[in-house]
Amino acid sequence: MIRRRLWIVIICFVVATGVAVALTLRAENRYESTSGLLVTGGIEPQRNAETNLQLLTLPSIASRANQMEPAISQGEFESSISVSQVAESDIVHVSANSASPQTAARITNAYAEAFVEYRKEDHGKIAAGRVSLVQRAVPNDTPVSPKKAKNVGFGALIGIVLGLALALLLEQMDRRVKREEDLADTTGLSILATIPKRRSFDRKHFGAEPLSPAESEVFRLLRANLRYSKDRGAVDSVVVTSADRLNAGWGVRTLSQAAVAYNPFDYQTGAVWPHDTAMVAVGLRSYGFDDEALEIFTGLYEAATRFDLYRLPELFAGFDRVTYGRPVRYPVACSPQAWAAGSLPYLLTSVLGIVPDAFARTLHVIRPRLPEWLDFVEINGLTVGTSRVDLRFERSGDLSLAAVTAKSPDLQVKIEY
Question: Which of 152, 174, 308, 329 would suit a FRET pair with 16, their CA atoms being 20 to 30 Å apart?
């Protein structure tokens, strides 16, 4: 969220820091000089020191100092002088702040001497000990303000805080859709696929060079979701006329056995194609009809056991399983054939609920289901982008459980039941 508006934080940081630097450079240097007064005598030294601190702030002291240094006004004496006690000692510091180190020292010394004279004259009247000047102020060429590093650091901090606050405010006010979940909630439609912004996807470069496996997977996912999209509304049931005659027991025929044009040896009017059968089962699974998908998966798997090396052919005849007891070979079917070879892995991926998201470095396992005849499945070295993961699926009664037995550190696995 902040990353997309990082430029705001950077601008505020640069502007605030620049303003702090400019104000610091324009500010007048101030210098400070300090003299020391010693308070002695009296029964209560601490109280004497406190009393003298109060006496040092009297306007009459500034008036006396002005008489000693006529070039410096009484107002300047009053505004530039500060007094403090050194811890709990008998020492009182008198400090002056001025644009000139020499002037600061003159103000301090004149004020301290004026106070010492005042206390000598009023010693008998005020029982606050004796005061003497023990340290004269000397010019200090090091300015006490402005504190350049502190000012610039404080300005930078204000810029960062202001930038973060502004970025958060704009983010809250921004009503645009920013996440997939927000888009689905706003439109009420399912997300078919998320195509990242890549150089290989733009108009100039698309098709000019092969896509990586992860990039190709995005378009495979889009194609599959377009085929099985539920955007027309949630499906509550699937109705297939003469379903028992459409399903040969080994797989789904291209035409029902009850149809007039049915021909178990014809490509499009009665034969069983393993890859079409797999897509039907995956479609049922995507709509939540898990039991129906498992029934088709079971039939196709058992058909594979009747062929040499468990090798499903391109297609086989659509004769009924009950009547013939084994799938009837199609005379000119290709075997091996890539579509058919991928059917069972495709179906297994679907019933186990394996949904990879390589760009997000995430593997989703959604509603895993195993048929009754299959107790467990182990998948080792499953690749998700550049990551790998080992999974184990196991039946426990009516439940099918999934577990991660090993994975790459950068891969996140989310299991949903």
Answer: 174
Question: Do 222 and 241 share a structural domain?
Answer: no
Q: What local confidence, expressed as pLDDT, does residue 258 receive?
A: 77
* Domain membership flag for residue 141: no
C-beta of residue 357 within 8 angstroms of C-beta of residue 363:
yes
Provide the pLDDT for residue 237.
53
Q: Are 333 and 383 in contact (CB under 8 A)?
A: no
Measured in whole angstroms, the distance separating CA 115 from the mean position of its chain's CA atoms is 65
Q: Whose CA is closest to 71, among 95, 106, 99?
A: 106
Length of the chain: 417
Residue 7 DSSP code: H
β-strand partners of 355:
364
Q: What is the pLDDT of residues 338-374, one digit of tens each?
A: 999 999 999 999 999 999 999 999 999 999 999 999 9
Report the candidate in 285, 301, 303 with the shortest Cα–Cα distance to residue 293: 285
Identify the domain containing residue 59 by its residue range: 28-135
Tokens in use for 304? 């594979």
Same domain (yes/no): 241, 190 = no
User: Do 246 and 329 reside in the same domain of the chain?
Assistant: yes
pLDDT digits (tens, 9 = 90+) for 234-280: 555 554 544 457 889 999 998 888 777 889 998 888 899 999 999 99
Domain shared by 282 and 187, yes or no = no
Tell me how far apart the 2 most distant CA atoms of the chain are, in Å. Answer: 134
